[in-house]
Amino acid sequence: MRRSLSVFTAWASVLGGVLVLPGCATTPHLNGGAAADDSITSFAAGVPSAAAASYQTYVRILGANQVQRNTVVITTRPVAAYQSGEDILDLASPDGVSNYIASAFPRQPIERVLLKNDDGRVFKRLRLAAVERVSPSVNASAATFARGQHIDVPPPGVTIDPSVKPEANAETSRDEKTAAVVSVAEALIDQPYIWGHNVDRGMRGFDSGNFVAYVYHHALGYRMSGSSHAQWNNVGVTVPIWDMQKGDLLIFEDGRHVGIYLGNNEMIQAGGGLGAVGVVSLGPESYWGKQLTTVRRLY
After folding, report:
1. Domain of 79?
2. pTM for this one?
3. What is the DSSP track for 218-258?
4. 77 and 178 co-located in one domain
5. What is the SS3 assignment for 187?
6. How many angstroms separate the CA atoms of 47 and 67, rounded?
């Protein structure tokens, strides 16, 4: 059954001092995808070895506070691996924490993240690579871009993955590529939301950046970052919002959230208040319609 949210009533809840708006999104990304002060396998540094051995990588985010200009403390509680939702984070993912930070603290130069248990013990320290400017390549044609303009294959921020057999390739028409993107995306409706997850990595469900990466990967053979902040930084060619076309990448507030345009004022995405992959309205009076800041074309 198609999961959708046609009329969005903006809501927010205060979690540990940070205002969390619906939607995922992703990220001052981790250096090299997962740079940190210690490895995932030993992330419970300072915790007795027995506790570290049994420590779960799935956690519920209880709250987050920006304690300095570039530092955030996230309070968590371990949960079972079957849990999902827009407050569930998999610490074993290379981009789960960074995608959450991009969503909860958009346009903030966050470089350090401390993860602590609900008893106050810090068990993980991460250093993020803050990206505050868009790559010149994505805006090179923005001022003169017109409907039908040629886009190089692959577009900026993308490589072709020869190991997959996409539904459409470089030689197919734009309409066939669009049909492939929509087909792959809609087949994922109701997949659960988990920060940092991507089915391509053998995981269950997606966050918004990883959902977009998976769709273009299997529809067109494109390989790109699963970080929504990195997607904002360097993926695709910027086009005017008024020229938005089905299959375009939609970006909200520097990668706080991302999705794919379906036409008819609808976007398919992971999260966005749904807790899963689904469709939300982009109408002029809708929540997400008012939040849209960037449109990128990838083919």
Report:
1. 4-127
2. 0.81
3. HHH-EE--S-HHHHHHHSSEEE-GGG--TT-EEEETTTTEE
4. no
5. coil
6. 23
Same domain, 68 and 160: no
Residue 260 has pLDDT above 90, yes or no: yes
Region 99-105: what's the mean pLDDT? 95
- Residue 120, burial from CB neighbour count under 10 angstroms (0-12, 13-18, 19+): exposed
Q: pLDDT at position 148, please?
A: 53
What count of Cα atoms within 13 Å lies in the side-chain half-sphere of residue 106? Answer: 21
For the stretch 41-56, pLDDT in tens is 233 333 333 333 334 6
Query: Total domain count for the chain?
Result: 2
Whether residues 244 and 286 share a domain: the answer is: yes
Residue 49 is predicted with a pLDDT of 34
Quick one: 142 exposed, middle or buried, by C-beta within 10 A (0-12, 13-18, 19+)? middle
Which of 98, 127, 156 is at the close of a domain? 127
Instruction: Identify whether residues 60 and 170 lie together within a single domain.
Output: no
Mean predicted confidence (pLDDT) in 115-130: 91
Q: Look at residue 54 in the predicted model and tell me its pLDDT.
A: 35
Pairing of strands 277-281, 4-5: parallel
